[in-house]
Each structure stands twice: as C-alpha cells, then as structure tokens.
Amino acid sequence: MEQEQNKATSGFAIAGMVCGIVSLIPMGLFSIAVAIVAIVLSAIAKSDIRNNNKNGAGFATAGMVCGIIAIVLWVLLIIVISTAILSFA
After folding, report:
1. Rounded average pLDDT over 55-60
2. Across all residues in the chain, what is the average pLDDT?
3. Do residues 12 and 45 lie in contact, with contact meaning Cβ atoms separated by under 8 Å?
4. How far from the centroid of its chain's Cα atoms is residue 37's Cα?
5. pTM surpassing 0.85?
6. How many helices (H) and strands (E) does the chain have?
7. Which residues face 19 on adjacent strands?
C-alpha cells in the first residue's frame, strides 16, 4: 500500500489534462489545436503510465475526453454554420 503512494505521476498526463480543459474554452482555431495536443499528450501519458508504472491514468483519461469533446463541439458548430449559410444561398 505504501508503495502505491510513492509512485510518480506522469507529467504527460497532467499536461494532457490541462490542454484538454483549455481546449474547452472557445478560442477559435487555437482551441482545436490545443484539443489535438491534449489527445496526443494523453495517449502518450497512457503508454508512459503503463510502461513505467506511474500514476495519472485519471488525468490522462480526463485530458483525452476533454480534447475529444472540444473537437466534437467545434465540428458540430462548423456543420451548423455551414448548413445555415447554405440554406440562405
């Protein structure tokens, strides 16, 4: 039990989570780029956690989920705007 507490937390997992949260802030194309970075960092973190016996799986999952949600919201927004523009043309 004590060994569990002394494991290091993956820095990639924390960075992925922070980028995922930031990607949810509407900032145009920057949000999409940060969402992609969040997904990539979270995927790297999951591998790092598995291979190096580190903590942070929850952080990595949160980063990946937030990044995916941000991308889905932007795609939906683009579809809605495109549909609105095409319906008036």
Report:
1. 96
2. 93
3. yes
4. 7
5. yes
6. 4, 0
7. none
In angstroms, the CA 61 to CA 55 distance is 12
What range does the domain containing 59 cover? Answer: 2-88
Retrieve residue 50's tokens: 């598995």
Cβ-count burial 6-17 (b if 16+ within 10 Å, e if not) = eeeebebbbbbb
User: What's the confidence (pLDDT) of residue 21?
Assistant: 97
User: What number of residues does the chain have?
Assistant: 89
Residue 6: pLDDT above 90? no
* Distance (Å, whole) CA 89 – CA 74: 23
What mean pLDDT is predicted for residues 37-51? 97
User: Tokens 């973190």 map to which residue?
Assistant: 45
Residue 24 and residue 70 in contact, taking contact as beta carbons nearer than 8 Å: yes
What is the domain count for the chain? 1
User: Look-up: residue for tokens 């995927």?
Assistant: 43
Ramachandran angles phi, psi of 28, nearest 5°: 70, -140
